[in-house]
Design goal:
Mean pLDDT: 83
Low-confidence stretches: 1-26, 160-168, 230-283
Strand order of the largest sheet: 30-51-50-49-31-43-48-47-44-45-46
Number of helices: 43
Distance between the termini: 86 Å
Oligomer: single chain
Radius of gyration: 43 Å
Helix content: 40-55%
């Protein structure tokens, strides 16, 4: 058995010698190897042990020395050409004969030569690798090889020079190590594989060429029209479109008359590419191109898919051949591994190029293989929508701006700034009109305008116009409208997990990752390839699962249908909500989900809008009035509008004054994506791209890394002077590790961790990209009521006006009354009736929170069965009355008031009560009833935090409802007499001041944007800590004449504009704040001066919902802005802000990227803490992988220089355990416990990040170079240097068997581990370094393992890493070490790389000093003392605002 094992070993050596790469003569460029010792003396020749003898090739095995021919084999067997013993050697291919010296076509002189058995381990004293004759002579004497034996290839030496006759004792040659360099292998290109490749490539080229020519001639007409597009008029476009669409039936004229297209839908088309208006981004033009399918184009497209798949198959064949899975190793390359490598390189390059092109144009490639035509005649249409980035912040660096401009130009060149979608064109069965569905919206081709557009029906703008549709639609008309607007169903296409994963994988960076991984799989680095692939796939799967679940949640929210009663042909029909069209009248039932945006025509309806707007309480909806008032669903008409996506809590019929029953019905106004809900769904599904300075500079950094990778590639090719193919692979590995494939996963890992932590705090995130935005918030805007203050109000008291009987005396106020029961009857009656509170099943009161609190204070009740003709019947126990509300004008934000008409059953008189803000109500009061100190009294109570409502009254006498049926609000409210003020207190939430203080401590400016009065807002702002209690506040407002004026809130004195200018210019004395009303805000906005004031104004009061949006957007122009509100009238501002946080009970609000069910503004603090932590963690992960890449680059450059490398187990440990696991640990660094006064940098190219990166890189390089300087001063190393000319460099996994590779591996291992600790520091935004327990534990374990490998005696672990170990024979002979575990023989002259004990501790000290130096650099220079000092002396240009 031992003989068999020995023969097998020899056979493997012979086989490897014929298929592996030849030894490369690659040496250090700037120093000579093993020439002089430390003292400069020539290096002595040393004893060398190993398989040093060359292969002996003979013409007959009988010529072999005794014991190395057939006599070596058992009886009945003979020595075969591959060195094995067998009875049948004929099946062994000739290429395994080492006597061919690896030649693809050996010379005829080598024919017939067979090898003797290999001469294995020998020991040669004073071995001189440069003198091959020494080795030959020694081996000849050692193994009794008599006579003159020439070297293989010196064929003339086999003739006797005197007689020119063959040598009588046979032909013998020294081969093996003495073989000359074999000629380069090459293909004949008539091999079946290449014939197949040429056939496929040629066929593809022919198909593409034919298609290009064919496509050119088929599209000549369209191309010609496009060239003339500048003079191509709309009329011409229409004529051409209609002429080419003769089979399209015209629109119904009657339908257009009844419901004309909106102006937004009538955007004209010019040129051959039709345009339309995008539903998601109003005003965004869509570029349309029509296409027709073509059989030849289909063949071309299929051929492209086949070629793309073929590249992967081809690469798979080549990779399998590398490992011999197709038979023998390199069977496709004439069994030559070098040729196999050289072939794979162009295959990989061509495959990558092909796939990159396909990936770049994946959205357009299918249409390239269609025939372009006019959109009016195509079978499909290609839609291009320009993607306009929302700039979060911009860099002031000229270099960054130039790079950004270059990137934008390149993106425009390849048209990557457009979202491209191809939609199938279908026909309406009823009319034959063409249409397509895009972004959940139906676009119909209109012949008159020759364009595709969504149809929007105009049912009228006044109440009477809307009421005129109360009779419903006919079936025919409804069907025609259905054809134009499509089903009332927002169909959200959510791909399956498999399809979503495929779409994720089609992105460019995944292509880069997997093409790099393919090289890992090929070049015997498959272990790391598998690990990295698993990580990449795992990160992709997590992203896919999160996205699909989010889209499924949107799908669940968007898609809904149920049975519904619809008025068609004058009869109620049970249909589906999908069948609803604009103009339909439908019944509203309790519990139903509102299927469309609708106007309430009758009944008493209560709607729950929390799922849409976040409004915490249900809202009462009223029928529109019988007048010509304008219906505005986002303003005054909101209380008359049912919104799609909301639910109906209660729906009741109402008996009118004439005894008829008004049942709850609604008029469908908008369906599908034309509803508010549909537009929100579009914004979620098709969001506007966000550009943040982090992302901008990240792309620039990738560009810099690519240039750096090219430099590393060149250095690798220059220094690693071996076969070009091997150099190319090593260079590509260096580039791939410099731009780590794990980088994208690491960048989002911190965001994902932060989102999970927020979820535990009941803060939900639907947009991960906004997490790091929260880390850069500079200004935080707040709504007041329900956000800073409690949701409910508390009754505080009343102040009633007293009109003297004597006309000569002015009216005055009575004393303030804090008990409701002590108020006059008239005031109590007003409080009992002037509201829109309703009571739903279960006793829950709904309505305006102020109204609810006021009504509760009265202790009155709402009758469940109101008097016929009354809107509500109020039972007043104290007065023993039952009051009927016969007319009501609901609260309007624009008027800040509401009014009711109430009939008193005692005398039949109708009393009008009007209630609202004291500023607005004054405009409707009879001046003779208003005390002179009216404003002072109201302001005084507001200044104390009171929510002040003024109440007016008119006694209309005994009047019939029909007489006032058509009265306007002004008719009913004007001329009222002042009753007095009702005052409520809006108390702060207990934790508001603390949360505001934390935000301000975190250098965040806090601003209030409220619909309440300015004085109340100022009071709350001071109480909450937005401004100091002692601050002087100047309030801006408008006079009746429309002039801006400013008053000192505390002194009630008007101040001049020069004083305000001094505040803006920073010249004001003391602590001064500005506040302004909505009127002042609108005035300044109109005159273009608002931007001068916005950052100096603390309180914006009496702001309408649209004003809130505008105000937030103005702040966004100056910095990263967040908005926090309860989702009621501030949902627009929440959507507009960079970071919106809705205090909503819903797990995920669709009005903002963040929602909190905690309903405390401490959620704002937590969001910013987690956001800052996520941003800092993302930078830490980014920095760690950059430092990993730099350390890896230095390792590779040094290994290129010395022609060595770390062992395979070292690479596995670095990539699989150190890099991957520590990257994850870095991401799990906990957030800081409080907000720092600084924000984390978002500039990847900023001074702090560059200081960390460049400083650490410089220190690491210095210590690495210093370690080699230390090594070259050691006597045990000099003259024992690694000489790659004496080793087989093809065995790259054994190129670590030398001192240079040991030093390189040990120093870099310490650096790899310590880089994670370097980026772990920083307690401003994350927990202190020692609180990241997993990272600290791993760091300590890894440092301990490396230290043990370095300092401990030769052990199993060190030998696995090929560190401080050696061949067993050398360990036994030179160190008296006898390991029990197996060790592959060392691939070096000295046979070991054991460092002397004292030098080990010196090297360990160098490594520890390296670690300490980088840590101290990070702590002293990059983070704390030096950085803090420089930040104070030379601060960056940042937004300067008063906190």
């Amino acid at each position: 058995m031992r003989l068999k094992s020995s023969l097998t070993t020899r056979a493997l050596h012979l086989a490897l010698s014929s298929v592996l790469l030849q030894s490369a003569w690659t040496k250090p460029v700037f120093n000579s190897v093993n020439e002089v010792d430390v003292d400069g003396r020539p290096c002595p020749l040393r004893t060398r042990t190993g398989a040093l003898c060359p292969q002996l090739c003979v013409s007959d095995v009988a010529l072999c020395p005794q014991g190395y021919g057939n006599d070596l084999c058992p009886t009945g067997e003979k020595l075969c050409i591959d060195g094995s013993c067998s009875s049948a050697c004929g099946d062994i291919p000739a290429r395994k004969n080492p006597c061919g010296c690896g030649f693809q076509f050996p010379p005829e002189q080598a024919a017939g030569l067979v090898p003797c058995a290999s001469f294995l381990d020998v020991t040669i004293d004073h071995y001189n690798a440069k003198d091959p004759s020494q080795t030959i002579d020694f081996c000849a004497d050692k193994f009794n090889v008599s006579g003159i034996v020439p070297i293989w290839g010196r064929w003339s030496a086999e003739q006797d020079l005197a007689t020119n006759l063959p040598i009588s004792n046979g032909r013998r040659f020294w081969a093996g190590k003495q073989c000359p360099k074999a000629p380069k292998y090459h293909y004949k290109y008539n091999e079946p594989l290449w014939l197949g490749v040429f056939a496929c490539s040629g066929a593809e080229a022919i198909i593409l060429a034919i298609w290009v020519v064919y496509k050119y001639f088929r599209e000549k007409t369209v191309k010609r029209l496009r060239r003339k597009e500048s003079g191509f008029t709309t009329a011409t476009a229409a004529a051409v479109a209609v002429a080419n669409a003769k089979d399209t039936k015209p629109l119904s004229g009657k339908l257009i008359d009844d419901a004309s297209l909106s102006s937004a839908s009538k955007e004209k088309t010019s040129g051959t590419s039709a345009s339309a208006t995008a539903g998601a981004d109003e005003g965004t033009e869509l570029r349309l191109k029509g296409f027709k399918n073509d059989v030849l184009g289909w063949i071309g497209f299929v051929s492209v898919l086949a070629v793309s798949l073929g590249w992967f198959v081809f690469l798979g064949f080549w990779t399998g051949d590398y490992y011999g899975t197709l038979g023998e190793v390199a069977s496709l390359a004439h069994y030559n591994s070098s040729l196999l490598d050289e072939t794979l390189i162009p295959i990989w390059i061509f495959a990558t190029t092909w796939l990159v092109v396909c990936c770049t144009f994946q959205d357009r490639i299918r249409n390239y293989f269609r025939i372009e035509c006019l959109p009016a005649e195509g079978t499909c249409v290609q839609i291009e929508r320009e993607l306009v980035e929302l700039r979060m912040a911009s860099s002031t660096s000229m270099f960054v701006r130039l790079a950004k401009r270059a990137e934008e130009n390149f993106v425009k060149l390849i048209r990557a700034n457009y979202h491209v979608k191809t939609c199938k064109i279908e026909r309406i069965p009823r009319t034959g009109q063409r249409y397509f569905n895009y972004m959940c919206t139906r676009y119909v081709f209109n012949e008159s305008s020759a364009q595709y557009s969504p149809y929007q029906f105009d049912l009228g703008s006044t109440h009477n116009q809307l009421k005129s549709h109360a009779g419903g639609l006919s079936s025919d008309e409804a069907g025609a409208r259905f054809d134009l607007v499509g089903p009332n169903f927002i169909s959200v296409d959510v791909p399956s997990y498999v399809m979503a994963f495929a779409l994720e994988m089609s992105q460019f960076f995944y292509l880069y990752q997997f093409m790099v991984m393919w090289l890992y799989y090929y070049w015997n680095y498959y272990i790391i390839g598998v690990i990295d692939t698993c990580i990449i796939l795992l990160s992709a799967i997590v992203k896919v699962v999160v996205r699909v679940r989010s889209e499924l949640r949107v799908k669940h929210m968007a898609e809904h249908s149920e049975a519904c009663s619809i008025l068609r042909d004058g009869e109620w029909q049970e249909l589906s909500t999908i069948d609803l069209v604009p103009g339909d009248v439908f019944r509203v039932a309790a519990g139903m989900h509102v299927p469309c945006d609708a106007v309430v025509l009758g009944g008493n309806i209560v709607s729950d809008e929390s799922s849409l707007t976040g409004e915490p309480l249900p809202i009462r909806k009223f029928p529109i009035h019988d007048d010509d008032g304008i219906h505005d669903k986002s303003g005054a008409g909101k209380i008359n509008t049912l919104f799609a996506g909301t639910s109906v809590s209660q729906a009741q019929s109402v008996t009118t004054s004439d005894g008829s029953v008004s049942e709850p019905i609604g008029l469908c106004v908008h369906t599908g994506t034309q509803t508010d809900k549909g537009q929100l769904v579009q914004e979620i599904l098709f969001p506007q791209p966000i550009s943040f300075i982090f992302n901008e500079q990240l792309r620039l950094v990738f560009g810099i890394l690519i240039l750096y990778a090219i430099l590393v590639f060149i250095l690798a090719m220059v220094f690693y002077q071996t076969q070009p193919s091997a150099s190319w692979f090593y260079a590509m590995f260096s580039c791939s590790q410099l731009i780590s494939p794990l980088l994208p996963a690491a960048l989002v890992m911190g965001q994902s961790v932060a989102a999970n932590r927020l979820k535990k705090k009941q803060i939900y995130c639907v947009n991960l990209d906004r997490v790091i935005m929260a880390g850069k918030v500079q200004m935080f805007c707040f709504d007041k009521t329900g956000t800073l203050t409690k949701e409910g109000l508390e009754f505080y008291g009343g102040l009633c006006a007293h009109t003297n009987g004597d006309d000569t005396k002015a009216p005055s106020f009575d004393s303030f009354v804090d008990s409701f029961s002590a108020l006059p009857d008239l005031m109590r009656t007003a409080a009992s009736t002037c509201h829109a509170v309703a009571e739903v099943e279960g006793g829950l009161m709904i309505g305006n929170p102020v109204d609810i609190e006021m009504f509760r204070t009265t202790q009155c009740q709402i009758s469940t069965t109101p008097t016929p003709g009354a809107l509500d019947t109020i039972m007043v126990p104290d007065l023993g009355l039952q009051l009927d509300v016969i007319k009501r004008f609901e609260f309007l934000h624009s008027r800040a008031s509401m009014s009711v008409a109430v009939r008193d059953p005692r005398d039949g008189h109708v009393h009008v009560f009007v209630k609202g803000s004291f500023e607005k109500i004054k405009e409707h009061l009879d001046n003779s009833t208003v005390p002179d100190n009216y404003m002072q009294a109201a302001n005084s109570m507001a200044r104390q935090g009171g929510y002040v409502l003024a109440v007016g009254h008119r006694d209309l006498g005994d009047i019939e409802l029909s007489d006032m049926q058509n009265w306007s609000r002004d008719d009913m409210e004007n001329g009222s007499a002042l009753v007095g003020f009702i005052v409520f207190k809006n108390l702060l939430k207990p934790d508001t001041p603390e949360a505001i203080a934390k935000l301000k401590d975190g250098s965040t400016r806090t601003v209030m944007i409220t619909g309440d009065t300015a004085l109340t807002g100022v009071f709350i702002a001071k109480g909450a800590g937005l401004m100091n209690e002692s601050a002087t506040v100047y309030l801006g407002d408008l006079t009746k004449a429309g002039d801006l004026y400013w008053t000192d809130v505390d002194r009630e004195e008007v101040v001049s504009q020069s004083v305000i200018d001094a505040v803006i210019d920073g010249r004001a004395d003391g602590d001064v704040e500005l506040a302004m009303t909505g009127k002042a805000y609108n005035h300044l906005e109109d005159v273009g001066l608002i931007r001068q004031y916005v950052l100096f104004t603390r309180v914006f009061a009496r702001m309408l919902p649209n004003d809130k949006v505008s105000c937030v957007q103005l702040h966004m122009e100056r910095g990263i802005t967040a908005m926090c509100g309860d989702g009621g009238n501030d949902c627009g501002a929440l959507r507009a802000a960079h970071v919106g946080l809705a205090l909503s009970d819903a797990e995920a609000s669709i009005v903002s990227p963040f929602s909190s069910s905690d309903r405390s503004i401490n959620s704002c603090v937590e969001l910013m803490i987690q956001g800052r932590s996520a941003l800092a963690t993302s930078f830490a992960g980014y920095l760690y992988l950059i430092l990993y890449g730099q350390t890896m680059t230095f390792l590779k450059i040094f290994s290129f220089y010395f022609s060595n490398t770390a062992s395979s187990n070292t690479w596995i440990w670095v990539d699989a355990f150190i890099n991957t696991i520590m990257s994850i640990c870095v991401a799990y660094s906990g957030p800081a416990t409080k907000l720092s006064k600084h924000r984390p940098t978002a500039r990847i190219l900023g001074p702090q990040v560059l200081a960390t990166a460049l400083g650490t890189v410089f220190i690491n390089f210095t210590f690495l170079a210093g370690a080699f300087g230390w090594l070259y001063r050691k006597s045990w190393f000099r003259c024992n240097e690694f000489d790659s000319s004496t080793t087989d460099i093809a065995k790259w996994w054994l190129l670590a068997d030398n001192y240079e590779a040991s030093i390189l591996a040990i120093v870099c291992l310490f650096q790899f581990v310590n880089n994670a600790m370097v980026v772990n520091f920083g307690f401003y935004f994350r927990r202190r370094w020692y609180r990241n327990y997993a990272l600290v534990f791993l760091w300590a374990v890894y440092v301990a393992i490396i230290s043990i490998v370095l300092l401990a005696p030769t052990n199993w672990l060190g030998c696995r890493f090929r560190l401080n170990c050696g061949s067993k024979s050398v360990l036994a002979s030179e160190f008296d070490i006898h390991p029990s575990f197996s060790i592959e023989d060392y691939n070096s002259d000295i046979g070991h790389n054991i460092i002397p004990n004292d030098s080990r501790y010196e090297l360990w000290g160098i490594c520890i000093a390296n670690m300490c130096a980088t840590i101290l650099w990070q702590l002293i220079f990059a983070l704390y003392p030096v950085h803090s000092t420089l930040r104070k002396k030379r601060p960056l240009r940042r937004l300067q605002v008063k906190l």
